[in-house]
DNA sequence: CATGAAAATCCGTGTCA
DNA sequence: TGACACGGATTTTCATG
């Protein structure tokens, strides 16, 4: 994991469709060497997967909200319960007053309300505080450099 | 934007490196037809880009926190000020008590503290409430189906 | 769907710590 | 000596009509 690896990752985050020859040129490597490095980054799990970034609105997921989930019990083993709700994009255990923070995307605020209702059906959940996003400034990949 | 498009997107989210022949087979299309569909999805901006998903810890960004930023002024034009802080991965204008919600990734809690300090230098920022993530259950792409 | 062009992948060889 | 980079040969994939 040196500066060349970081440069490769930054380039791939920007555009993972570019040819290894182009990629190599951008970081000062031959196509083969660039390919080798990237393969190893994948093997080591540094690069988890190659994916596409999709416009949520086009998928009928125009409403974004963050929900603080309060609980009356240990939520450490509740991964599956949260993962079972398809509208939940992220779920994190947090320090502080609430126990779980989830990021939710729905088509409408009605659907958001329905997600909140389903959250209450999860064992141990005692309350929710939803914060609706009015405008997203930006969402970008983790900085590699 | 029909069910086939949604299936294509779901497949690409899972693995964007697969060949169009494989992709086509997965959704019941020929390689050429799959290629055509995906090209159009890119042109229409539904697929914004192809990127790699990287392990934040490997990049020295093992600490994740969400920060509620309070303000004494309209923050609607502050995109650039937040974007200038490289540790900020997402920034959203929110409804409710605080005005901006940011997602921050740093190597250490010391660095997190430094990010908070820099947030206070942004015009109009009057307070912050940081919530540190103890464990991430999951982070996944927006559901396409 | 076929076909030329281009890219990915494999592998032998050389080189630098 | 081991890890890495190079570059050519082969196979696969892409993109065009």
Automatic annotation (TrEMBL), chains A, B:
The keyword Cytoplasm does not apply. Transmembrane segments: none annotated. The keyword DNA-binding applies. It holds the Pfam family HTH_AsnC-type. Residues 1-62 form the HTH asnC-type domain. InterPro entries: AsnC-type_HTH_dom, Dimeric_a/b-barrel, Tscrpt_reg_AsnC-like, Tscrpt_reg_AsnC/Lrp_C, WH-like_DNA-bd_sf, WH_DNA-bd_sf. Keywords: DNA-binding, Transcription, Transcription regulation. It comes from the Bacteria. This is Lrp/AsnC family transcriptional regulator.
């Amino acid at each position: 994991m040196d500066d060349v690896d970081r440069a490769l990752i930054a380039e791939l985050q920007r555009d993972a469709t570019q040819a290894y020859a182009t990629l190599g040129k951008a970081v000062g490597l031959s196509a083969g060497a660039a390919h080798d490095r990237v393969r190893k980054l994948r093997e080591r799990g540094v690069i988890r997967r190659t994916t596409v970034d999709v416009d949520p609105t086009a998928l009928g997921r125009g409403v974004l909200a963050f929900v603080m989930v309060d609980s009356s019990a240990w939520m450490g083993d509740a991964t599956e319960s949260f993962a079972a709700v398809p509208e939940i994009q992220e779920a994190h255990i947090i320090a502080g007053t609430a126990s779980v923070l989830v990021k939710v995307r729905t088509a409408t605020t009605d659907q958001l309300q329905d997600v909140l209702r389903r959250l209450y059906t999860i064992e141990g959940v005692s309350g929710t505080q939803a914060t609706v996003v009015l405008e997203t400034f930006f969402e970008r990949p983790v900085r590699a450099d």
